[in-house]
Hints:
5-stranded mixed β-sheet, Aminopeptidase, 33% helix, single chain
Amino acid sequence: MPTHSSLDVLPLSSGDRDAWDPLWQGYLDFYDHALPTRIIDLTWNRLCDPAEPMGGLGAWADGKLVGMCHYVLHRSTWAEGTYCYLEDLFTSPPARGRGVGRALIEATAEAGRKAGAEKLYWQTHAGNATARSLYDRLARHEGFLVYERPLV
Ligand SMILES: CC(C)(COP(=O)(O)OP(=O)(O)OC[C@H]1O[C@@H](n2cnc3c(N)ncnc32)[C@H](O)[C@@H]1OP(=O)(O)O)[C@@H](O)C(=O)NCCC(=O)NCCS
């Protein structure tokens, strides 16, 4: 499939809420996860607040939001600068396979670099072959496994 003739990756801003909602919902559906509206509103406000150590990027093609990602900047005990964690990445199903995901990851790397981050990293499920085929071309899998324990 050809790449989008013109794809613009821009920081998400408050006026993008209506376009972002269905993509965020699609992402939550992908993970079979429901979030209360209160958390969705909170996340959206944080993504748009320059004082928050997180941000969002949107990929636009022909005036339509076709992909989005969110990242979080945080301190590290291993570095002077911050690390940039790419927490969410989603391309709308009809727009897939045309470089949107790749463009969003590259733009996140740039946003992280500008914010002083020394490293960009992210995780995915071992069984997410589609995502991994893209990630294997953009980064190295260092072999670490993720453990989780709910605290609330
Ligand atoms: C994973 C996901 C974000 C990838 O998005 P995408 O926009 O399709 O990604 P890209 O188009 O950049 O890359 C995907 C495929 O297109 C290919 N591609 C990339 N640039 C391309 C280009 N210029 N021309 C043609 N194909 C291209 C990639 O090589 C890859 O091919 P492959 O899967 O056949 O090996 C998307 O599939 C998605 O949203 N999945 C559901 C949610 C999800 O899994 N999110 C990630 C959780 S960690």
